Amino acid sequence: MKKQKWIKYFLMVTVYISIMCFTACGKSPTESLSGRWIPESIKKESGKWTTEGLATDGYIEFFSDGTGYCDGDDFNWVAEEDGRLKIEVKGFGSRTDIWSYKVTSNTLELTIDEKTTVRCKKDK
User: Do the strands 73-79 and 67-70 form a parallel or antiparallel pair, or are they unpaired?
Assistant: First the structure.
């Protein structure tokens, strides 16, 4: 009888921990960034969100295979758990950029440097 209670207790704890893990873990960085993002506003030195100087007809697209596209350039990308995003643009004038990112709901904030952040909305 005690053995059955122990097994029942063990199963309940295992199920509880599994549920907590799946709930807390959420999406991976790749899943949360994948898709097309439309720039909505930009924050520069002034600290205010504005559309001034922002190409509102453009978009940035992150594909789940680690490639992407923006303003005529193809790139490779890697998102890390700590909020760092590595963008490697190939071809003529190739370069590598390290940005910070934050995804909340359908909003992506890309911090390009300490003075410039771009806010994007996920395209439907």
Answer: antiparallel
